[in-house]
Amino acid sequence: xxxxxxxxxxxxxxxxxxxxxxxxxxxxxxxxxxxxxxxxxxxxxxxxxxxxxxxxxxxxxxxxxxxxxxxxxxxxxxxxxxxxxxxxxxxxxxxxxxxxxxxxxxxxxxxxxxxxxxxxxxxxxxxxxxxxxxxxxxxxxxxxxxxxxxxxxxxxxxxxxxxxxxxxxxxxxxxxxxxxxxxxxxxxxxxxxxxxxxxxxxxxxxxxxxxxxxxxxxxxxxxxxxxxxxxxxxxxxxxxxxxxxxxxxxxxxxxxxxxxxxxxxxxxxxxxxxxxxxxxxxxxxxxxxxxxxxxxxxxxxxxxxxxxxxxxxxxxxxxxxxxxxxxxxxxxxxxx
Length: 336
What we know:
The protein is built from ten helices and 14 strands. With 336 residues, it is of the alpha/beta class. α5 packs parallel to α7 and α5 packs across α9. The longest helix is centred in the first third of the chain and has 21 residues.
């Protein structure tokens, strides 16, 4: 099949490209290189350095594709409260453009990568797909808007759509010199450089982390299976629900980091305390299975970052709203 991936230089997009090439699909994709590394892109994939916001360009490069996987996004949930223009433009707006191009080109199926941010605050967890979304930040709102736009366009223009909700994915190809996102990668990059991890609030926020190796088959199955058309499906584990402080301690142990003394800073506005998604629907429809423990996932990610060489953090994105509520980690560039 001919499969096009938006965000192909990013973490998830590039991992999907590698997997789909192994399965003998014809893979192409685009990226603006805001949030990815160009060396993530496999040599056998056709690459277009195109920003998804440009409709005519997207129509041209998605023509003739069987399936489009929309993974491109500035996935900065915390930053979205302070840079809403940047994040929403590169989340909801680019999604509308990509889906419009797909409809115009009669693409058979679109697989959208959503986010756990769609759930926001709920009365219970783990989050399940029938819950009414209640996003609490611009990123979550933009992700939900993208989902709704896709649903409308697919119904009117009669193409298939699947809405997958991966969450907290970790593994090789993840951007680890980015101070605004990817908590596990940030901590590993810091500790490999003999610097203390920085933790927002009291570190008791709880999350589950998805090993990228465990979720790839969900995407490859979603390309061909008819039972998932029109469905929203959480992708990732609901085991090993850990606090951010426990995550830091695990990374310390994996790296044998000495003199562990985390730096605690003020909480970030709108950060959800407890957030995890049920994997039951993915197990039923997409044969999801958690194959790797969190420790194995951290070892896998840490080995890759070490092989690439730990780096100084790059503050390459502008913070649009700077005031006393903005995290000092960003305004003071505390991630060195």
